Amino acid sequence: MMQPNLIPTLDPNPLPAPYWVFKLLLVVTFFLHIVAMNFMLGGAVLALVSKWRSRKGVNGNRVFFDVARKLPSLLPATITLGIAPLLFVQVLYGQFFYTSSIIIAWPWFLVLVFLTIAYYGFYYVSFQSGQHARKAGRVMLSSVILIFLIGFVYSNNLTLSQSPSRWGGKYFADPAGWNLNLSEPTLIPRFLHFMVAAVAVGGLFLVFVALANWKRDGEYARQVLQLGGKAFMYATMAQLVVGVWFLASLPRDMRMLFMGDNPLATILLLVGAAGGIGAIFLMSDALRKENVRVAAFYVPGITGVVILSMSVMRDILRDAYLKPYFHPEQFVVKTQWSVFPLFLVLFLAGVVLWLVMLKRYGLFSGTKAAGTLPSAGSQAAKQS
Amino acid sequence: MNYPAWDVAFGAGLLIALVAILHVFVSHFAVGGGLFLVLTEQKARRNNDLALLNWLKSHTRFFVLVTVVFGAVSGVGIWFTIGLISPAATSNLIHAYVWGWAIEWVFFFIEITAALLYLYGWEKLDARLHEWYGWIYFIAAFASMVVINGIITFMLTPGNWVKNHQFWTGFFNPTSFPSLFLRFAIALALAGIYALITASVQKDAALKARIVRWSALWIVPSLAVLPALGWWYIRKIPADVWASARGPMPTGTHYAVLAAVLLAVTFALALLTLVRPGRIPLAFSLLVALVALGAMGSFEFVREAIRKPYVIGSYLYANSLYATQMPGDGGFSVDEVNNAGILQTAKWINNRELTKDNQVTVGREVFRVECQSCHTTNSYRGVKSYLELRQWDQNEIQAMLGGLEFMHNGVMPPFAGTDSERNALAAFLSTIQPIPAGAAAVADGKTVFERNCVMCHQVSTADPFYSKLPKDPNAANEALKDLPSLFPLMPDLKLSDQERTALVQWMNTQRSAKGPGTATQGGN
Lengths: 384, 524
Prior knowledge:
The complex is a heterodimer of chains A (384) and B (524). Chain A has 13 helices and no strands. Chain A is mostly helical and 384 residues long. Chain A folds into two domains: 14-334; 336-384, no CATH class. The longest helix of chain A is centred in the N-terminal third of the chain and has 35 residues, at 19-53. The radius of gyration of chain A is 22 Å and the shape is globular. The N and C termini of chain A lie far apart (58 Å). Chain B has 22 helices and four strands. Chain B has helices at 12-46, 50-85, 87-121, 127-156, 161-164, 167-171, 176-200, 205-236, 239-242, 251-272, 282-307, 334-340, 342-345, 359-370, 383-390, 394-401, 419-432, 445-452, 464-467, 473-479, 483-486, 497-514, and strands spanning 310-312, 316-317, 459-460, 519-520. In chain B, helix 1 runs antiparallel to helix 2, helix 1 (12-46) runs antiparallel to helix 4 (127-156) and helix 10 (251-272) runs antiparallel to helix 11.
């Protein structure tokens, strides 16, 4: 039953910048968040895979701990980069997002609990060394399962946020918030689409690990390259199947958007599919030739374009779902000129400072810290 | 009403309190602890104190595990929780202050990166560069606190924002500076308090003593200035905001007293650590932290209690209704709901029609959309215990609901809705604590006063209750028969003859016993 009157009205405050500004920020920060999430989750999954393979005599424990030590940085990157799209989605789609969150309130709240436990799990593993490998593996597995659950709750919430016709039935059946959106036909393919992508991009993360070790320990780096590259290839192949499943599960008018009805959406889908297939071949070639540069620069470059086009497609799909209920013209725009430029300045300054911080730490120059020269220290201190 | 109301059995308010208090206890540490790290590092290097430096390395790890993990997740947690429980307020906060939040996010990003590089940099960087990361961390964390403080104080004392809706007017509101200094002092004290925890597990007694003394140097002066900063803060809070904490149900005052007591205990415990600084056990440092958590929690409860009945001062009530009608309010102001009725205005209710048979069902829904953001039936801020105390029957409840905004010096929003919806709510509430009509009549004047009058009146000759009511018992008895004619805002409460006689008698004995001008708090 359609209950359009259930959709909350906006609050009286105008939008403090034009609609497209928030849209741009939403899509770009979502893209960054999803890349970080993919590195984190995919990296963790592949760390477990390599650990499992280590029983067959492969140097898997080393890969496991190498990746595990990066997770306490990748998870906060995911969270921090996730806060921005969480903020901007509330700016534009609060009416839908708050409502669906409330309907599945307890699973949504449990995300926090799962995240905290998974996070401490990652730290626990990162502090271990070889002798506690078995226990570390079990803890890592628990963390990974919890993060999968978080992803599943997210898929539930975001699909429900764009299906207002399902709200009333769910809410009034259980106002205490023990709901999910399991009857949504796109739920499983959508969830898998994100999770399989994570494994593929996690493979690229291993390729970066291989690159970092290339000169120091060639044999190990080659193993890691093979593991990461193959994971990328197989997961991307699986993604072609999951992606088709996801597309097929969409309502017909949504599906047709990507098959001609909406030229931009169609082009983006083609870019995504062609990019994915191209990346598989390129990676296959790179693995055969053990060309780490191709695997670590060209393939991630193509993948970045693919993820970006997918992020835009995701946005087009959301707006298509919400078309009967959501009209950007509804916003009264009153740009806060006294603070919006300040944000832009601080944002750019923040990006520069962030890069300087990484550079001085030596992250862009191999393994040695760049900041060992006192003169460099005093210069940058002035910049801060 | 605009959004669905999440039905949290044990109390939505309690859930927010839990998440928020744990978060602030960690997030203030994240600010003060940052300065502590970098200054302690400088001190250790200056004195060539390798033992201290080694402890600081492990303390950094503890710091990151507490602040970067729990602090960050619980910070996101507050967003999740307020979005679930007060979506209308969250939406307002987002639209009015999104650029503030976005700026805060930039600082937060820098902060988290700097914290991790500082942690991992212990083994990798030279001293100067390492300290550089420490300073960046602290400056970003402090800046982040400045932004959040501006927005949180805006919610309590929005000042002229209510009129002009300007970003900076709300940001630099009457309490933003006192609150910022107060919070920074708390942050510095917490830096020392958390340091006691990792210090207390050190085996080297001399090292432990050095850290404890150094920590005390952070705790004691910071706590010593807190009363002055607190006084400044309180002075900047408008009298009408404080009013509810001074009424017959002074929850805010109770928490303020509790905060002060726990603060004094924290102070005393911090001084005690100096008696044998080399020998404080882990249990003791945890006790200090626990008492400080209690003090911090009480302080946050004060803020929350005095902010009532609003969630954004003078603008949005805690139950998500706007205080005054304005363009774009969607019909969700008190006046509009009074006119149109809840059943026609609310989006998230099942029953649109009120009949004789569905009064209780509708009343339950009215309770859900209008009361449940703060109350439960039988748990946190449960109405059952309140009704038990007052012993009101359905008619009395209905009369009292008409003057919610006057009770307890205005701690609650007014009931918004039509008279028949108010009746339905009364019908539902009377099922929670059933009292047959007239059954609760008592002959004891004090009890009559405490059940029916104390929520608005005080036993004081200054109170209109004494000044307006005739001294002659018969005349007073007669006047009490029709309360609204005595004063238009009074509820139309029908006391029995017996109750009126007892009340008048008791009042007159109070009048002679207290003498003019004395005031005592009535009720509980």
